[in-house]
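### Sample
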Amino acid sequence: MIASAPNRPTACLALADGTLFYGIGFGATGETTAELCFNTAMTGYQEIMTDPSYAGQVVTFTFPHIGNTGVTPEDDETADPVAAGMVVKWMPTTPSNWRSAGPLGDWLATRGRIAIGGVDTRRLTRAIRQAGAPHVALAHNPDGEFDVEALVAKARAFAGLEGMDLAREVTCAQSYRWDEMRWAWPDGYTRQEAPKHKVVAIDYGAKRNILRCLASAGCDVTVLPATATTADVLSHNPDGVFLSNGPGDPAATGAYAVPMIQGVLNQTTLPVFGICLGHQMLALALGAQTVKMNHGHHGANHPVKDHDTNKVEITSMNHGFAVDAQSLPDGIIETHTSLFDGSNCGIRMKDRPVFSVQHHPEASPGPQDSFYLFERFAEAMAARA
Ligand SMILES: NC(=O)CC[C@H](N)C(=O)O
């Protein structure tokens, strides 16, 4: 069936259950299929759209005004947007600053990403909360014609993120040294002293700001592709190993990441620090399990309790899988817990500096309460030296 919806909307979001949302298309034209998640952050859409962890996901923003500020290359978390598409309530018209990079629609179009505006994102968010993150097809056609049955069928045919290894697709092609000067933070944040610790960071879809934070905590960072082996890692003679965030199912990515991590744990006493996907894969390597969540955590205001200090930190989150705290073996301690739903947000080995968190201490976007974790990693390397 070819349907022309009223007022000729130019974009259509079809959920696998047959629900349709029409709106105004911007960004690239064409179609994409993905899982749909909602993000509650009020700022930082550019960092969210360029976070490699969003590969395979369309993001709907609960904050209604997206695109009032423009885009700037400084805020890209990777070279291209990696989220599959974008859903917003109010369409951006004219950004208030950074106009040189152009409005949001142009930015998305040149990177082949589809967006839909004018959607009732509250209704959509309620649907996600109730039924879980749906599979969707998103189409942008300036002619306003949509084969909605075909779109629903494509949404249904989307295989889903469970079992999907996407790290291989978003990782760097070759190893490289993080060039701190090129991506330095604004004045005042940039590290002044020479780096003290040699860190190998495995790129499962690393956000630039994580590498920047490692550098500003005193690390000289060498980034290796996702499929690096234990021997590859140890050939750099590191003082510590960092496991990055990334997209997809940790169990699938773990097929090659887990043996590498276990090799590092068995052959060395190096400090290991993981964030998000890195946290989940460290947990798998230590014998725990991960589970798919109903609709995950995606936002910049998630309270997390640090059990070591009893402090609550407000954190940035982006994950659809979680470590099952019940599955943690003896000798592995739960260090952080979500105060929203009690899910696991951090672990560490009882007597070794091997630890990881589910949330994003690098923020971008989000509050910087958890930056101490980078310092903890640096302190662990200093103590071992
Ligand atoms: N930000 C991340 O590293 C996400 C990890 C994993 N892909 C998840 O959705 O849970």
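The longest strand covers residues 290-306. This sample (Carbamoyl phosphate synthase small chain) is used throughout the tutorial notebook.
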